[in-house]
Here is the input.
Amino acid sequence: SQTIHQWPATLVQPVGSPLSLECTVEGTSNPNLYWYRQAAGRGLQLLFYSVGIGQISSEVPQNLSASRPQDRQFILSSKKLLLSDSGFYLCAWILSPWTGGYGYTFGSGTRLTVV
Amino acid sequence: AQKVTQAQTEISVVEKEDVTLDCVYETRDTTYYLFWYKQPPSGELVFLIRRNSFDEQNEISGRYSWNFQKSTSSFNFTITASQVVDSAVYFCALSEANAAGNKLTFGGGTRVLVKP
Here is the structure.
């Protein structure tokens, strides 16, 4: 069966420090991968998505970047965190090509607080 | 571009009352998929239902029911006889079959508070 892992679960980082959040999927190959962010009390905003190794599409210009060094690994990074980067980060995946047969599966999320 | 609107930001009910969450969507694609997710206080997203654009049948699952109406671009969600455990944020979402990357776009969410 397929599973998705995200870590760490919580993170407190000072302003200006780097960030690396990792997401891995098991039990499948060539998934579409997504990074979402949820600011406190807000909705879910798509940050990046990837349809293959090394292929990254950015939805919102910001202080973050994403990489996909392996088929089932998706990394969210920042060189220097801002206070506005605080939020709940969720990774998700679907099979590719997706024919709509099922829902998107989300990881358990990383709660990032920038202080 | 795809868009999902959940006009209700917060709904408060007393246990055993019914509650209906509204969802209105916009899309130019003829093939698309609609979803509802539940986000309890712990934060994880729990998948509730998926509906494709060709299936307008309403669906009932226990105390949950969904009303999909293409004519009004709505996909509303009703919780019957609400319970305290239903307290959560509920998100409606849309994915277009032909959109690059099959992106999933969320509405702003509706917070449901069920009081005992």
In short: Chain B is about 0% helix and 55% strand. The first strand of chain B starts at residue 3 and ends at 5.
